[in-house]
Amino acid sequence: MAEEKIQGLDPALLDVLQRVRAGDATATSSLDAMLRPRLDRYFRAGPWPPEDAEDLVQKALTRVFLHVNQLARTEAFLPWLFTIARNVRATARERSLARQRIEVGGLELVERRAAPEPAEQERPERLAALEKAINALPPRQRQCLRLQLQSELSYEEIAATLKLSENTVRNHLALARESLRRALTAPEEI
To answer: Has this prediction a pTM greater than 0.85?
Structure first.
């Protein structure tokens, strides 16, 4: 127990972590309550608005709870936690920079220099068409797509969430993207 304290893992956190790993559902909310303030401080130190920091905390916690049973050594929990947080922060930073350099034209990423800015009246129509196309997808394809785009989950995380194989998730996403491309491509572009 003293060794865990030296490693920065206090006994209360160690106890809750062991209960979560043993499958105690009530310990999950306790672990969330213990980790959320630490992660909140970590993400608020970044260049994000407060609501974005809250989203990043949630993404990090989602990954922690999905993978906590894969942690080999309990005493390595805090470095593991902050590795996840750094990865979530790095991904958010990369996406933020990418959004500044590119715009979404349907599902294709287009350099701003390469494509003219669409007329202001076309944007709402294009967004409405995209939403309609997404709603027309089969339920599993729609679920996989929303988890990837909105929750920014990996194939592995989507598979774990929906209790599907990773290959099935890849197939659903490929079919969803192809359906959306077909739905959003103007007849004269075909």
So the answer is: no
